[in-house]
Design a protein that fits this description.
Keywords: Cell membrane, Glycoprotein, GPI-anchor, Lipoprotein, Membrane, Signal. The protein has about 230 residues and is of the alpha+beta class. The protein has a single domain, classed as Distorted Sandwich (Coagulation Factor XIII, Chain A, domain 1). Strands 2, 4, 5, 7, 8, 9 and 10 form a 7-stranded mixed sheet that branches. The protein has a 3-stranded antiparallel sheet with strand order 1-3-6, with no helix packed on it. The termini are close together.
């Protein structure tokens, strides 16, 4: 397919440099850090040292606030316990789901899965994994101290905001980067249905359908190269 065959509204998408990357940012709990050059590095996007002070995060009903910089993303929320858990993110707080839209996106009302032995003061690290890169997953982590005390309504609302983003598909098999995941053999999983969930969007047609379908598999870099053939 040549550029001349594409609608004029799609042309700017394919005129971007092929080195452009799509990313997300973990805004709450406080992330260890974020760097476009290391975002694909497991387990925490190149930030492998625990960040102090830790963010207090409710055992039952805590939000994870993201800022999405890709129009469609698969996301998974994992957790590891301990002072410095390394790469042992074997607790599934939210199974892989598909999200659509740019800007603020809150994964709200998340809880430590039933059966995981935690109490007030348990140290943990939350890992958010997303796709959106031709080379695999994108990773960010936040170090937390778990608490049985719920956030106040104002604190919750301050750290749980949505723009035009929405969930379009729940409980997708596998991890966002298409691998079997990096957790241990004793994986725990929790499933939460949230208010931001929406029915699947209507299917696109024509060049838009090709772009969305290919970008989902290949990432932003791969689809640009594909469409310019």
């Amino acid at each position: 397919m040549h550029l001349s065959a594409l609608p004029q509204t799609l042309l700017p998408l394919f005129l971007l440099p092929l080195t452009a990357h799509a990313h997300f940012k973990l805004a709450y709990p406080t992330a260890r850090g974020w760097d476009t050059k290391t975002a694909t590095s497991f387990p925490c996007g190149g930030f492998d040292s625990v960040k102090e002070p830790r963010t207090p995060w409710p055992i039952n009903g805590g939000p994870v606030q993201l800022r999405m910089d890709h129009t469609q993303t698969r996301v998974q929320v994992l957790m590891a316990l301990g002072e410095d858990p390394g790469s042992n993110f074997n607790i599934v707080v939210r199974p892989t789901f598909a999200q659509e839209g740019l800007g603020d996106f809150c994964v709200g009302a998340l809880s430590v899965p039933e059966g995981v032995n935690v109490t007030d003061g348990t140290l943990a690290t939350i890992q958010v994994v997303a796709n959106g890169h031709a080379d695999g997953g994108l990773y960010q982590c936040a170090d937390v101290i778990l608490t049985s005390e719920a956030l106040s309504e104002s604190d919750y609302n301050d750290n749980c905001k949505n723009g035009t983003t929405k969930v379009i598909e729940e409980n997708i098999a596998g991890s966002p980067n298409g691998t079997a995941g990096h957790g241990g053999d004793d994986d725990h999983s929790g499933s939460n249905t949230e208010e931001e969930s929406q029915p699947p969007a209507s299917s696109p047609t024509g060049a838009a359908a090709v772009y969305r379908g290919v970008s989902w598999v290949m990432g932003a870099v791969g689809v640009a190269a594909f469409m310019l053939v």
